[in-house]
Write a structure and sequence with these properties.
Elements lengths: L6 H6 L11 H5 L5 H12 L5 H16 L8 H13 L5 H18 L3 H29 L8 H11 L4 H5 L9 H14 L1 H27 L5 E3 L5 E7 L10 E6 L4 E6 L5 H17 L7 E5 L3 E5 L12 H17 L4 E6 L7 H16 L5 E6 L2 H6 L6 E6 L1 E4 L2 E4 L4 E2 L7 H7 L2 H4 L1
Parallel strand pairs: 1-5, 4-8, 4-9, 6-7, 7-8
Antiparallel strand pairs: 2-3, 2-5, 9-12, 10-11
């Protein structure tokens, strides 16, 4: 079963986008190879829902966080090798020799560049094979080729490097030109005998690129790793959570369970509600990827997906107002939770596109209804603190707020969660402090 996160959620949380320097993808995109970037992209597109797979990947990243490593291969050589493998395939040694001889003859007669390109591709393959050999020897000397996350790569590399005909090429001087017979033999090995193993080795190398890159980010940012629990545990316990893009961000802790599945959040404008909610969504998404998280610790039961409603746009083409777009978003979530899916849901300022009376009634009714789906967890924020007072009798709703401290006429925000409901409203104070009324 695939993890659910639709485009609205991905956009709200700024999870994807290699060309968006503010995205969470860009935060982790320290890879050295194009293939590594593609592997990273697939990991972001496919969070996992199997406990063992999540925890296993977390352990790999944890290893590379705790054991610093540099990516040991030349990206240009890897790219050239991949291109050569994709363009060539040989079935027999005789055919390989015939083609190489023909290409060399054409190069001398017509200045055809095919033979030169062949040589460049083969030399790139040799460069990578030598680098693989050097890495494998280091791993074996240090005892890391078994029992560590290096083992999968080492096993795949060994399938090629321990082939009886590999030694003759690996022991050649690095700058020595290949003869016609050597070129033909290497072409047959690379494009024929070893091709499938080499493609698998390259994929393992791309994965290694991702492991080293993500582990480096985790070490530099002091991120931790979540522990996934079965769905039946129905819990989430997060300590010292912050937005992963805020190195000096204020941390907060929160929990969910069957007995407390709704976090009702109040606070003034600029108090940090949206940032907290986005941080929680990013936290859980990364946790289902097995990635490091911006928290002191996190333990969670596996969920089916995340839905958010933070920046819901209107739709001029369909004639949807902002309010109607909000209603459709709530309807979508209602349909999903009604199908007994286990979801983490973020509603930031429910029904802000309508009048206060309708917003009050709708927020109260929807929150009370969602509270009954105890297998799902909700964070619902609002400026209408009166809704909170009306929800006091709901046993599974917890009330928290982000306070504002007034220093004279200037508000100061602590960004630190407290229990309860706040009645803070500083909108007019901010307007007056900016001198808007004086200008008018």
């Amino acid at each position: 079963m695939s993890f659910i996160a639709d485009k609205q959620t991905l956009d709200d949380l700024q999870l994807l986008g290699k060309f968006n320097s503010s995205s969470i993808f860009s935060l982790f995109n320290r890879v050295k190879t194009k293939g590594g970037e593609q592997v990273l992209d697939q990991m972001f597109l496919r969070p996992m829902t199997e406990v063992g797979a999540i925890n296993a990947r977390s352990e790999v990243f944890r290893y590379f966080r705790d054991h610093a490593a540099e990516f040991p291969f030349r990206n240009d050589a890897i790219a050239a090798m991949v291109a050569y493998l994709e363009e060539n395939r040989e079935q027999s040694a005789g055919l390989s020799f015939f083609r190489m001889a023909r290409n060399k003859t054409m190069a001398s007669i017509t200045r055809d560049e095919t033979y030169e390109r062949e040589q460049q591709g083969l030399q790139a393959c040799l460069v990578i094979l030598r680098e693989c050999g050097a890495l494998l020897r280091r791993l074996e000397q240090d005892g890391l080729h078994t029992g560590t996350p290096w083992a999968a790569w080492a096993q795949q590399a060994g399938l090629v490097l321990r082939h009886p005909q590999a030694a003759a090429f690996l022991e050649m001087p690095a700058n020595e030109e290949l003869s016609l017979s050597q070129s033909a033999k290497l072409r047959h090995l690379v494009a024929g005998v070893w091709k499938e193993q080499l493609l698998a080795l390259i994929m393992a190398t791309y994965e290694l690129d991702v492991y080293i890159a993500v582990g480096t980010v985790a070490r530099e940012k002091n991120f931790s790793f979540a522990v996934a629990r079965p769905r039946s545990a129905n819990m989430l316990h997060a300590v010292d959570v912050k937005h992963p893009r805020l190195d000096k961000g204020v941390t907060n802790s929160f929990s969910f369970s069957k007995e407390g599945n709704v976090l009702f959040l109040t606070g003034a404008n600029m108090a940090g509600k949206s940032t907290l909610m986005k941080s929680s969504g990013i936290l859980l998404y990364l946790a289902h990827m097995g990635f490091p998280v911006a928290a002191g610790e996190l333990e969670f039961s596996v969920m089916d997906g995340i839905y958010s409603s933070v920046n819901v746009p209107d739709d001029l083409n369909k004639g949807y107002s902002h309010f109607y777009a909000e209603v459709l978003r709530v309807k979508k979530v209602a349909e999903e939770v009604s199908e007994e899916k286990k979801l983490f849901v973020i509603f930031d300022e429910l029904f802000k596109g309508t009048n206060v009376k309708d917003a009050y009634d709708a927020t109260l009714s929807v929150t009370a209804a969602f509270a009954g789906f105890t297998d799902c967890f909700f964070i619902i924020s609002t400026h209408i603190f009166e809704v909170g007072e009306a929800l006091r009798e709901e046993p599974s709703v917890r009330f928290v707020f982000l306070p504002t401290v007034m220093e004279g006429h200037v508000p100061r925000y602590t960004y630190k969660l407290q229990e309860g409901i706040t009645t803070d409203r500083q909108g007019m104070i901010i307007i007056e402090n900016e001198g808007i009324l004086d200008m008018l």
